[in-house]
Predict the structure of SET domain-containing protein.
Amino acid sequence: MAVVVATPTMASTKANPGAVPSRRLGKEELTKTHKAHLKKQDNSPHAPRAVKQPVLSDAYPASTKSIRELEIIPLSELRAETHHRGKGIIVKAISAPFVGAGAVSIVEDEFGNADKLAIYNQADSSILSGVPEGCVVAVKEPYYKNNGAEDDFMICVDHPSDVILLRFTDPIIPESLRLGPLLKTAEDWRNAADRAFIEKDFPTSVFCYSEALEASEDAAFKAPIHTKRAGVNLILGRYDAAKADALASRTGGPQDWKAYYNAGRAAYGLCSYTESHTLLTTALDLNPTNANIQKEHARCQARLREEETGAYDFPAMHASLGPHAVHLDRGSFLRNTRVAESAHHGRGLFAARDLRAGDVVFVEKATLMPNQYEPARASAALYALMVRQLCDNPSLAGHVLGLYDGGYERSGEEGAVVDGVAVVDVFLVEAIRTKNCFSAPRSTLEDTRPSVRDGRQAKGLWVHASRMNHNCVANTMRSFVGDMLISRATRDIKEGEELFQQYVPVKTMVDVRNKQFKDGWGFECACVLCTAENRSPEAMLAKRKELLAAVEKLCSKKMPGRELIPDAKIRSVDRLAKQLEEAHEKDVYEGLPRLTLIYPCNWLVAAHRGRKNHGKVVKYALKVLRNFGFKVPDESEVWDPREIYTKSGNATLMTVHVVATLRTLAEAYEALGHKEMAERCAEAAEFGYVLVTGSKNDLTTLDK
Ligand SMILES: C[S@@+](CC[C@H](N)C(=O)[O-])C[C@H]1O[C@@H](n2cnc3c(N)ncnc32)[C@H](O)[C@@H]1O
């Protein structure tokens, strides 16, 4: 589904909040305008579907009551800009839906009052994503919103669980709205469902199969309908329902292999591979020669092996990526880690065994990640997917709703099933999204190519990785292959140590980066680097800012290429770099990164490289490594660059620039005739590239 972001409509100033409007549009006017809108509707199946992303400051809770507990009121009693707590409405759609950011229908109550009903955040898999004319719905605790003009109002439903499609025979439907069942017999309903299936109208097919099941008491009639509904639910990705249907279709006979097979596929869709394996094994016992079961069974075993061993064929994973292939069929390897209370905040992730620098910490398949890499659409697409999955697969709620929500006030009923649907609070979903999602390039490896740094990133949710707290000098590093997140240790880690990641590449200045953390995640970082830098007086910070700005101005914020940089300019930058170095107090920065010095030193490396001054390249490249927090010797000492990951202490900052610097060092040592040093640096660069990209890859990618 293509997604565009809709701007939330603003509350009007014209309505008298809390009052029953003195004038509102009548049925005829509403219907006429609606018909005009319907004519303009883009009905092409690939028309981009807008998403109304919630604004957290407008948050209100989802209804947790059953419609049967609420006082049913007529439309004429709705009050402007009011959440009608304790109340509900029951209305019939008297128009086709206009589908935009939501689905708007003209509805009528039992007294003949008409109004507009806008339903947002329904998944395409739900019949409520466009209520068919004639259907009767209940809206729980509705909000009545003014649309700008004095007499223009709309019932606005943000939480998907606040609206319920009522079965035609539901006794709660008032007499005058009741048509009686449109189709009389269970067979009629089944036939209608079959027809809807053939027309690929899967939500309607599920609805009609459900009516057929309700209309029959005959187990022999019902079993194949459960099988059919399981099949449709599998297509819709409603795996919880598909599994329940598949298991309900069992008759106790040898044909039950199909029930276990479908249930196994549904469990696979939920990434519950152990359960899927058990179900598929039963299917295979009942039908050992069936090739489809054998194939699914083998696939499931492969996932379990990945979960168990963490052995992945990374080159094959990279090779399988394509514009429409970003969701990789792989299991998650999480056993090196465990979730526990953190001294920093809430829960965190901890090492479950000793890890060496470079080891895989964990590999996690995205819980949810849309294939949407357009920056302007990525957030809305993830939000929409989260809502859809929580509605369609309530068993996911346990994982997703357990995540940190930034202090959102919960009712405690989110995820509970009321009136047959899971309570989904869209503001809570958005709060969780903002605090826990990651940006992911389609491939971090590809992203290290200078030629393809285009900023295209999807947003996704990896619930295990989300448990990790932030640290500017983190001991792990993440990378992506499609929707797989690979976390590797940047240094040796002891069992029981808390694992940290950088939430975003850290900004150079301590105050700037902490403002970013505060605004985005509501915390101030207390890592060794931030703690130390916060001890440095403000005047020194100001001095460092001033000097860095002077270097950036002198160099126009660019890096030298292969061109010859004039001596005078190099001397000027060198002078400023020295002053900047002096502006880093020894007692503050001992053993810590000096982020302000990285740009000037990198610039000097490039400038001297252009002049083929290899000795100077070595000198400044060592400084770059030092400024990333790595332990490097004085120029003259013999050292082993391969040990920088294991012997540099606990405050190193790993990035692709470290890899690039090690390569440049290797090249300079080679030119100076220091073969062994060149080899060691090249090896250290290769090792670093594994941390950065997640797997062993050819370093020449960095040149392309
Ligand atoms: C994705 S959650 C991390 C897991 C979280 N600790 C939990 O209990 O689920 C992100 C939130 O953790 C907190 N957090 C992360 N790193 C932190 C740190 N270094 N210091 C304090 N709070 C931190 C912030 O409140 C942030 O919004």
The longest strand covers residues 87-93. Residues 342, 344-348, 404, 406, 435-436, 466-467, 469-471, 521-523, 525-526 surround S-adenosylmethionine (CB under 6 Å). The domain at 186-309 is CATH 1.25.40.10 (Serine Threonine Protein Phosphatase 5, Tetratricopeptide repeat). Residues 127 and 203 are 5 Å apart (CA to CA).
